[in-house]
Amino acid sequence: xxxxxxxERPSKYFSEATLQDFFEEQLPDEVKxxxxxxxxxxxxxxxxxxLPKGSNYCFAIIGLTEAAxxxxxxxxxxxxxxxxxxxxxxxxxxxxQRNSCISQALxxxxxxxxxxxLAELLEGIEKTRDQGPxxxxxxxxxxxxVRVFSSMVSEAGKNRVFEAIPSEFRAAFDYRKLQxxxxxxxxxxxxxxxxxxxxxxxxAANAPKERNPRFPGAWWxxxxxxxxxxxxxxxxxxxxxxxxxxxxxxxxxxxxxxxWDDKGLLEDYSSALETGxxxxxxxxxxxxxIAAARExxxxxxxxxxxxxxxxxxxIEVRRPIAKVQSMIGEVWLKVDQLYPKGTRDCRxxxxxxxx
Length: 355
Hints:
Elements: E1 7-8, H1 16-26, H2 29-37, E2 40-50, E3 56-66, E4 80-86, H3 95-114, H4 118-121, E5 148-151, H5 155-164, H6 167-172, E6 178-189, E7 194-205, E8 220-227, H7 228-231, H8 236-257, H9 288-301, E9 313-318, E10 321-326, E11 329-334, E12 348-349, E13 352-353
Parallel strand pairs: 1-2, 5-6
Antiparallel strand pairs: 2-3, 3-4, 6-7, 7-8, 9-10, 10-11, 12-13
Helix pairs in contact: 5-8
């Protein structure tokens, strides 16, 4: 009896046995023969999402990757084939409806995958190879650096992701140990004249040089539906690129907003570890209210003519008060009422400042 096909399934929606039987039927003999003789596996990621207006979408992404060592997740494939399904059900899906929706997306993606020659499926497969410790580039420590691996995100979108990762995160986690993993996709539904974008983000150990990272143990997903009719046919591609970039940014922001420990961002982080790369530790962020209070105190202690406050430019200082060029004209406010620009709203009611 031939050996079973290896399956890597980060989402764990279907059982390994179910996927093995499914791909035995779907794949050509050439691909199955390769998978039985090499240490490669079929990588399967499935997801479902419900949008606020009631639409339900399911996604499936398939690729080839080297089978992961025990206890580790596989590396993200270099080449993937994917599909999305729009469910007929409006509102929350029950288990049977979700299974049907995800199964349809998987069958569609597998149908495309099965038609691709093996040589094309294996393009870039070396980026998923493990082979023990990889070549780790020697780099100096830098608390301002962050490393991002992305797929289907434009260069401009990737830059936005870089900028959105706060300096506190960069200082808390050594970029030589940890990197972000961001995947985005978009799909069109011509009959409905809509497109749907999906993106996910998480963190993994920094991959060796010229290798893709392992798939994160925890990840954050965002989805958006856009009207192609509103964008116009000539702008449809640009709209989808922008949509993928926006969602990649939102997924990272959502991930950053959680706790930076094994209950949040680093949940199941051990599955994304790399041989020879030290693991990162939980990081407890200061209470935001305390941090904001410290920032305000520091700002007020150095307040001077020309300081930019949340209410406007300071034009005179006579501690404990200061004159500010506000939206209602020049006003005197207590120094202790002033905050850095952009950190608070400035509101007046009948000419009286509302603290």
